[in-house]
Specification:
25% helix
Length: 85
């Protein structure tokens, strides 16, 4: 069996990677990067389903959702947690 390096010291409070948003972290051989910031990370407020469908009263709400999904993908890819394209 391969020797495995544990990153946790068993502290009951848990284990944290990075002390601040500017600390660089990377996984699976990616270049370490700081925590991403983007206006797409702001909270979305969706309405209930309307005649426009899917809970969006305008295309602006849908576009904000698309921007958030794209930011999630970019964040996971930058950290090496998702291969991306």
């Amino acid at each position: 069996m391969a020797a495995i390096k544990e990153l946790s010291d068993g502290n009951p409070s848990g284990t944290r990677f990075g002390q601040s948003a500017t600390d660089l972290i990377g996984f699976w051989g990616t270049a370490p990067s700081a925590q991403r910031t983007s206006s797409a990370q702001s909270a979305l407020t969706l309405t209930t389903a309307t005649t426009a469908g899917y809970g969006f009263t305008t295309t602006t709400g849908f576009s904000a959702l698309v921007a958030q999904v794209n930011e999630i993908a970019a964040t996971l890819t930058a950290a090496g947690l998702w291969k991306g394209s």
